[in-house]
């Protein structure tokens, strides 16, 4: 004979029942297990100056990411720029664009260049670079974010540099908007002028400076 399973409804709820249910709801909620997607997939590159190799051979892909969580995991895992040896670079570029003048998306492009004094390495370098990364992954340039290819930080004894690279040095509207927003985000005082130069001019420069196509 089958034994009936008797479920009593009169048993009082376990005092922890509600707490348990809340925890289960939280654990099961997509918010807790779905990472927050970024609009673009990004690739972080590292350059180490080994004079026995060509410039391109010194460039290495570190990792790619396309979520907020993976961005922070990578950022927290790597050295701060101020701890790198002179001659090293980090580059963050949209997936599919190589961080070099020769890439099809950079060939007719240029960069907003921030040049830092030696003293600024301590005060500004790491926070300027983090702000630059956040401008990129957060698509801070509104309708003109499509023009952004990536950003580069050059750690150099003579003075560090940070730049945002855009795809077309003739896209005046995009370039001026990006320059204005970028300067604001970094908190660069209005009286300090930053310049935009084409890669073609940078690659063929003869002296120590390249002429500005735009200023902000
Ligand atoms: P750099 O690393 O951008 O600046 O360029 P750095 O070291 O401050 O030197 P400076 O010339 O700006 O004072 C240094 C050199 O690296 C360039 O002169 C090129 O020989 C080489 N180089 C830099 N970039 C960004 C590229 C690139 O995109 N393609 C190639 N082929 N060489 C590059």
UniProtKB/TrEMBL annotation:
This is Eukaryotic translation initiation factor 4e. Gene3D superfamilies: RNA Cap, Translation Initiation Factor Eif4e. InterPro entries: TIF_eIF4e-like, TIF_eIF_4E, TIF_eIF_4E_CS. Belongs to the eukaryotic initiation factor 4E family. It holds the Pfam family IF4E. It comes from Perca flavescens. Coiled coil: none annotated. GO terms for molecular function: RNA 7-methylguanosine cap binding; translation initiation factor activity. Keywords: Initiation factor, Protein biosynthesis, RNA-binding. GO terms for cellular component: eukaryotic translation initiation factor 4F complex.
């Amino acid at each position: 004979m089958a034994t009936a399973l008797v479920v009593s409804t009169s048993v009082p709820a376990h005092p922890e029942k509600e707490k348990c249910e809340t925890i289960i709801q939280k654990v099961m909620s997509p918010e807790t297990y779905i990472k927050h997607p970024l609009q673009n997939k990004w690739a972080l590159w590292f350059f180490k100056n080994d004079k026995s190799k060509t410039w391109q051979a010194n460039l290495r892909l570190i990792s790619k990411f396309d979520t907020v969580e993976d961005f922070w995991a990578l950022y927290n895992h790597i050295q701060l720029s101020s701890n790198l040896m002179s001659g090293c670079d980090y580059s963050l570029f949209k997936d599919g664009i190589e961080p070099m003048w020769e890439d099809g998306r950079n060939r007719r492009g240029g960069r907003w260049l921030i040049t830092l004094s030696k003293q600024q390495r301590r005060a500004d370098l790491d926070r300027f670079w983090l702000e630059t990364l956040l401008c990129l992954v957060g698509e801070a340039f509104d309708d003109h974010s499509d023009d952004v290819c990536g950003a580069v930080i050059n750690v150099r004894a003579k003075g560090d540099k940070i730049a945002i690279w855009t795809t077309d040095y003739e896209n005046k509207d995009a370039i001026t908007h990006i320059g204005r927003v970028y300067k604001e985000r970094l908190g660069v005082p209005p009286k300090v002028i930053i310049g935009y130069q084409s890669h073609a001019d940078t690659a063929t420069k003869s002296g120590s400076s390249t002429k500005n196509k735009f200023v902000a």
